[in-house]
Amino acid sequence: MTTATTTATSALAQDSGRRLENVLPKSGWITLGVCLLVFCVSVPVLNSLPLSSALHLPDYLVTLFGKFLCFAIVAIAMDLLWGYAGILSLGHGVFFAIGGYAMGMYLMRTIGSAGVYRSNLPDFMVFLDWKELPWFWKPFDNFAFALIAVVAVPGLLAYAFGFLAFRSRIRGVYFSIITQALTFALMLLFFRNETGLGGNNGLTDFKQIYGYRIQDQSTKVGLYVLSALGMLCAFLLARFVTTSKAGRVLRSIRDEESRIMFLGYDPTRFKLFVYTLSAVICGVAGALYVPQVGIINPSELQPSNSIEMAIWVAVGGRGSLIGAPLGAFVVNGAKSWFTVALPEFWLYILGVLFVAVTLFFPQGLVGAVKRGLPRDKLAALLSRVRK
Amino acid sequence: MTASNSTDATESIMSAEAAEVAPDEQAAPASQKTKTAKPPPKRGPSLFPRRRTVDKERVDALTQGRKALLCVDSVSVSFDGFRALNNLTLVLDEGELRCIIGPNGAGKTTLQDVITGKTKPDTGTVFLVGDDTDLTQLSEHQIAQRGVCRKFQRPTVFQGHSVFENLELALPGKKSVFKALFARLQKPEREAIEKILETIGLKDHAQTRAGLLSHGQKQWLEIGMLLAQEPRVLLVDEPVAGMTHQETERTAELLNSLAGTHTVVVVEHDMEFVRSIARTVTVLHEGSVLAEGSMDAVQADPKVVEVYLGKS
C-alpha cells in the first residue's frame, strides 16, 4: 500500500494563503502572463508590420484567430460542465447564438438609416413591410443594455431550463438528448420571420460598434484582443470554480451523486449553478464572435454545431481547462484548412479524428502529451492492418 | 377492478389518489406476500398538502419514558402492490447501537430509504425528537444536514479525490453553492479531519487517492466521512460484507466505540457479527417489527425462530 501513497495532486494539500493563490500555482500565473503576451501583443504587432515583410500577418487571419478564441471560450464553458460536472450538454450552441443575437440586435440598431432602404428600421423589417420597431428591440439601442442582455438572457434561459431538467433528476444521455431538442426547437423558432429576428437571413450588414467602424483594421484588432482577454478571463473563472470546494463537489456529483446528496449537498443547486455559468460564458463568446464574422443567423443553432463543440472538448481533453481550448484551436484550425483544401472530405476527417481520439486518447490531446503515445494500442492496430 | 370500483366508488370520485390506492388494496391480499387484512389509511387528496409537522401528542406517546432520538411512526410503503413496509413503528434511543436483522424482503433497505428520504412513504412520519419537522417531507440532502447519515452497502467514496478531500467534503457546514465557492479550510476543520483519520486508521493515507484504497479501507473511509458529518444518527448497511476476519473485528470495535456518542443503526446479515456488537436487536419480517430485545431474547422467540433463525 505504501507505493500507492504517490498521491493525487491535492489542491488542499497546499491550501494556504489567500483564495486566489490557489487558483493557479506560481508557475501557472507566469505561463498565463506569457500567454497573455503571445495572444494580445504578438498578433497585433505582426499585423502592423508592412505588407512587404515576411512576418506580416494578413488581416483575414486576425479575424480568423479572433473567431478561434471565441470558440476556445465556448470549449472552456463546455469543459466546465462536461469535464468537471459530467453533464454533457449538446445544446450549448443555443447560448452562444443568443449571446450573438443580443449583440447583433445592438449592431443592427447602430446602423441607423445607413441601411439599403435608408430607413430607421433594420432592413429585414422594411423588407417585411413592418412599420414599427417591435417592443423587445427598443432597449437594444443602448449598448449597456445589450451587454447585460448578452449575459442575462442565456443565463436566465439556462437557469429555467436547468431548473426543470435537474429538479426532475434528468441526467446522462437523456439530458444530452433534451438539450439537442432545445437547440433544434430554437432553430425553428429563429427561422421564422414572425420571431422578429431576421428569420432565415439573421442579422447582418453591420456598420459600426460603439462608434468604431466595423470594417476598420483597428476595430478588428481591438475585437481580437478583447476575445483573447475574454478567453483568459473565462479560463481564470473556470479555474476559480474547479479549484474551490464547489469544484470538488461538482466532480463528486460526476462520480457518486447519491453519496454527495447523503452528505448534505443539494446536487440540483450545484448542477444548476455550473450549467448557468457555462451558458453565460457561452453567451459572452457569442457576443464577441458576431462583430468579427459580421453575421448571426439561425444556422448557429443547428444541432450539429453544438455537437461540434463537444468534439472540441473531447479532442483537447475532457477535464482539462488547457485541453479544451487547445481542442477548439486544433479542430477549427483543421477545419479552416481542410474546407479550403479538401472541402468534400472535411466531415469525414472530423469523424475520423473524433473516433481516433476516443479510441487512442480517451484523455484527449492533453492526456496524450502527459502519458505519451499509447504504443501498445497503436502496435496492435498496425499488426492487424498488416494481416 | 369492477368489484373494487363498486365498493370504493364514492372514494374514487372524491379524489384521484383514492383510485390509485384501490388497485393496491386489491393486489395486496391477492399476492400472499402480506397477510394483513387491514388496509392502510388513505391519503388525502393531493390538492391539500400533507401536514409538515408531527403531532405533539403522538411524539409523547411514542417516546414516553425513554431517551428517544429518532422515531419512525406507522410507516407504510408499497411498490406496485407489494407492501415493503407495513405500518412499521420503530423508536431509536439516543446513543444506542441497534442491529436490524431480517430475511430478504423484510424491508430493511426500504426502511433506510424512508429514513434518509430516498423513498417517500405512502403513510406515516419519521421525525427526530425535539424537532417537529416530518422528515418524510424533506429531500435527501436536507435530512443529511439534520444529522441523519447513511453508509451504503457498497463502499461509496469519491474515487478521484484524496482521502483528505473525501473527509473535507463530509464536514458539516458550507454546503451551499456560494459558500462552497469561497470556502477555505479552517484550522479546527483540519484538526477534525486529522482526528478522524486517526480513528479510522488511515492517517498514512491522507493524500492517497481514495480509488487506490483496499475494500476494507474504503469502508472505513466511508464510516469516517459519516463521522465527519457530526451525525446524530448513523445508518450502516451491511458494513462487514466482503471484509476479512481482521477487518470485521476492527469494524466491530469501531462501531462499538461510536455508540454512546451517536445513535448507530446497523443492518446486517452476518449473525455472528450481530452477536458480537448488538445490545438491542430488531427483527423485521414482511415490513413490520416481528420482535425486539436483546440478542438472546430475540433468539428464543419462537416467531423469530420460525421465520428467520430456524431456516438458517
Overall description:
The complex is a heterodimer of chains A (387) and B (312). In chain A, 66% of the residues lie in helices and 2% in strands. Chain A has 387 residues and is mostly helical. Chain A has one domain. In chain A, a hairpin with a 2-residue loop joins β2 and β3. The model of chain A is unreliable at 1-11 (pLDDT under 50). Chain B is 40% helix and 20% strand. Chain B is built from 14 helices and 9 strands. Chain B has a 6-stranded mixed β-sheet with strand order 5-6-7-3-8-9, with helices on both faces. Chain B has a 3-stranded antiparallel β-sheet with strand order 2-1-4, sandwiched between helices. In chain B, a hairpin with a 2-residue loop joins β1 and β2 (82-93). In chain B, α7 (163-170) packs parallel to α10. Chains A and B meet through α8, α9 and α10 of A and α6, α7 and α8 of B.
Number of beta strands of chain A? 4
Number of structural units classed as domains of chain A: 1
Give the overall pLDDT of chain B as a whole number.
Answer: 81
Strand content of chain B: 15-25%
Q: Beta-sheet strand percentage of chain A?
A: under 5%
Shape of chain A: globular
Which structural class fits the helix and strand makeup of chain B? alpha/beta
Give the helix level of chain A as a range of percent.
55-70%
Tally of helical runs of chain B: 14
Total number of helical segments of chain A? 15
List segments of chain B where confidence is low: pLDDT < 50 over at least 5 consecutive residues.
1-38
C-alpha-based Rg of chain B, rounded: 21 Å
Describe the strand arrangement of the main beta sheet of chain B, using strand numbers: 5-6-7-3-8-9
